[in-house]
Design brief:
single chain; alpha/beta; Purple Acid Phosphatase, chain A, domain 2; 2 domains; 7-stranded mixed β-sheet; 5-stranded mixed β-sheet; 23% strand
Amino acid sequence: MKNILIYADLHIDKENLKECILVLEEIGMLANKYNVDTTINLGDTFNGLKPSSQELDVFATFINRLGNDKQHIILAANSHESETEQNSIMNHFGILSNNIQVVKEYKSDNHLYCGHYSLKESSSNYDAKISKTALKDFVYVFLGHIHSYEVIKPNICHLGSSRWVSFSEIHDKHKIVALITDYNGAKEQVHFLKLKSPTPMVEFILNSNKINKLEEKDTKNTPTETISGTNLIKNDDVGKDTQKVESMISEGENPPNPRQIEVLCQKLDNLPPKTKVKVKIMDFDSYREFLPLTNKYTSKFEIFKYEAEFNTVKDLAPIRAKTEMTTFTESFTNWLNQQNIDPKIKEILQKEIK
């Protein structure tokens, strides 16, 4: 019986080195637990063309621990690791052992295909030129490059990244690897195994221009579909939701409710330091309230980002004006009308901008 473990898009970098080590250690433990004969890396192992010695050491240690008695297939992607079709940093790993094969794509007869690119049918296709019809003759197709899990029926799966690389993946419930047991045998099955080591990611949306409530958005589904008519994908270790998108919003024309900030701070205080956090701030009032607190949370979390996403200073967007404002003069005049300023000063200011 032959078992194959497939993982994708580690994007090893210095900023997340500890996390990458833990993820690789877990992948290695899964390979041992399920008596894996072959591991397949779907590409984008590193996050740049010239990884540091530390980053190279992390992946080399992982390969060494897997042992020389197993076959290792490494895809050299055409983006992060390869300057040209032939020149790739991944080629160096091919000299470590005869059992390590570095390729641009992997084919096992007409049964299994592995590559690193998007398709025309992919939800994020990046102007892809290849259609799923080109891969219709394979029983299974596993692709990297797209960081969120996606099935393209009947036989194709974007496995997704092995950890949360960017906040565009905030809706992903889990990060997974694929395990094929009894490959090409009578009892062949594909399983998705949830990884427990990736650092969780959470995003909050702070907006004082909406109705007063705390809103929690749904996340994407975990793998439940089949990728071929005859081979069932099982959901092993795919459990409860771990990722949430929180929306924190308060009453319309009033200044931000102080409790809004308090609730956000309470949630941030309760999160473990091993969390990637992003706060999107949609208006100036909320930004003003939250800005003094950012140093506290920057020092607490491994990754903490906040973004001001309102259009102009003091939130001069149409949300407050309730009219379309097309010029700076109109915007500034509208802002002046909202302020408690001496009429004579207002008059002087309005003359200055004309």
